[in-house]
Design brief:
heterodimer, B: 256 residues
């Protein structure tokens, strides 16, 4: 029961603390406007380079922007505790660690879905992206899956925030590396082998590929392999995040660095 | 003489300060390299391979704006967090002249991005970098820095009054890349966006730099960039006066 409370209330309060709620503009500019401009930028860049259609870039970037919540949001749930000098107190509690950190992921999953949905909607309104209405539920399901796997990856980034003083040193490149390696803008087969191999192990890669097929008229069944790959990648990152959180927590206690800024 | 010293000392201090920030140097160098790699493979995969070299310079120029945007916006926020904003506002020189070298220094750090990107594309992808007008290229770079510094100054004024103005800088990276035609030609965008681009001094700064590398008129864009930058300075002067007075009245300068 206590773990359930840590999971829900802790996650809710942590999410609220991510934003300066007294200024809704912060959410609008960071979580809605920035992703929309990213989608527009890469779609026009795609037109100029003559690589793929608008739909390719809208789906790729529309799903990748969920990393705004999945990577930055999750990274900040740990980094923010350090900045506000509450990390030591938090980790001094006997709270169940899985409930503590997984609870913080749930609001970010919801937020990531909203960010992606808004991006895809704007792409539909402003660009040449017209998926069939019947494909929308399947795309929504894939967006949810990708956001979950992305949050697992973000939790790993957040875990590194226990070890490194500035979590943005990891979160910033992580977000932008996804633009390059996850097939968001460049087809994996056009990247060098080692890059596409890394991309295959990152979240979003298989989910985005599946969403493109579905948006083009394919069924969920036709992309089941991709979906299971995305699930496996997400599960692997979740395990990695949990292990790293425990290891770095123990190391932080031993070295007394949890409150070092 | 005092003014020149103020600007020089502020500029050098800012460059040193940012250079000592691991996060900032990392962002100024690594992020542009990721974008340079992305645009290289994207344009290589496209139907217009001749645009690869065009994209290479574009990626470098994108990096300059990213550095300017985050560091200019942060110029005042950091003073606020460190508790030195009130002292700077209370100091004898006009506050704008204290902040201007800080935004200019931020744009100067963008040189890391440009240099790193061009070197990366030369060494890793073997893309040649042979400016058609080398002398004008050398001149266009500081003109672009001045243009970006002036735009950064206008942005920075909002940080005096609004503690959460960094929300604005969070979203301005991609729009300015688009509106200034740094890598996507303005002709590809909806017509009305060209009007926005033409009023942005970096549009002309980027154009001057691009023309100095690939050929074309350099002096015209440099002149327009200088004229617009001067206008930005005047706008920032007026805005800073208003925002500074309001911030004093509301006693918000020390609020974090």
């Amino acid at each position: 029961m206590t773990s359930l409370r840590v999971f829900t209330v802790g996650g809710y309060l942590s999410f609220r603390a991510l934003f300066n709620w007294q200024s809704p503009g912060y959410y609008l500019t960071t979580m809605l406007a920035h992703p929309v401009f990213q989608i527009l930028f890469f779609s026009y860049l795609g037109r100029f380079s003559g690589t793929q259609s608008d739909a390719y870039f809208v789906v790729g970037n529309g799903i990748q922007v969920s990393a705004m919540a999945g990577v930055y949001g999750m990274a900040l749930t740990v980094g923010g505790e350090r900045w506000t000098n509450t990390l030591g107190s938090l980790l001094a509690t006997p709270a169940n660690r899985a409930a503590l950190f997984l609870g913080r992921a749930v609001p970010n999953v919801g937020n990531g879905v909203i960010v992606s949905a808004f991006g895809l909607l704007v792409g539909r309104l402003l660009l040449d992206f017209h998926p069939a209405v019947s494909s929308v539920p399947a795309i929504a399901l894939l967006v949810l899956l990708c956001t979950v796997t992305c949050c697992a990856f973000g939790m790993t980034v957040g875990a590194l925030g226990l070890r490194f003083r500035d979590v943005f040193m990891i979160a910033n490149p992580a977000y932008f590396i996804m633009l390059l390696l996850c097939g968001v803008n460049v087809p994996l087969d056009r990247l060098p082998g080692w890059m596409s191999t890394i991309g295959s192990g990152l979240p979003l890669t298989h989910g985005i590929a599946a969403a493109r097929v579905v948006a083009g008229g394919g069924s969920l069944g036709s992309v089941s392999t991709l979906i299971w790959k995305e699930v496996a990648v997400g599960a692997a990152w979740t395990v990695a995040a949990y292990v790293l959180l425990r290891v770095f927590e123990a190391e932080g206690r031993r070295r007394a660095t949890l409150e070092v800024m | 003489m005092k003014l020149a010293r103020l600007i020089w000392v502020g500029l050098v201090f800012r460059v040193k300060e940012l250079t000592r920030s691991g996060l900032f140097v990392f962002t100024a160098v690594i992020e542009p390299l990721i974008f340079a790699t992305l645009t290289y493979y994207l344009f290589n995969a496209g139907s217009k391979p001749e645009t690869v070299i065009y994209s290479a310079l574009g990626a470098g120029m994108m990096g300059i704006w990213t550095s300017t945007l985050f560091a200019s916006g942060g110029a005042i926020s950091w003073q606020r967090w460190q508790g030195t904003l009130e002292l700077l506002v209370a100091s004898p020189p006009p506050f704008l002249l204290v902040i201007f070298p800080l935004t200019l220094g931020s744009a100067t750090i963008g040189l890391y991005s440009l240099t790193a990107t061009l070197a990366w594309e030369r060494l890793v992808f073997g893309l040649p970098f042979d400016p058609v007008h080398l002398g004008q290229f050398v001149l266009a770079v500081p003109m672009l820095i001045f243009a970006l510094g002036a735009l950064g100054l206008v942005l920075a004024t909002s940080f005096v009054l609004y503690r959460n103005a960094n929300a604005l800088s969070n979203m301005l990276e991609f729009p300015v890349w688009l509106a200034t035609g740094v890598i996507v030609p303005l002709s590809l965008l909806p017509g009305w966006t060209s009007w926005i681009g033409w009023t942005l001094s970096p549009t002309w700064g980027f154009r001057a730099l691009r023309n100095s590398v690939f050929g074309g008129d350099v002096w015209g864009p440099i002149g327009l960039s200088l004229a617009l930058s001067t206008a930005y300075f005047a706008i920032a002067w007026v805005l800073m006066g208003i925002f500074e007075r309001r911030a004093r009245e509301r006693a918000t300068l020390s609020l974090v």
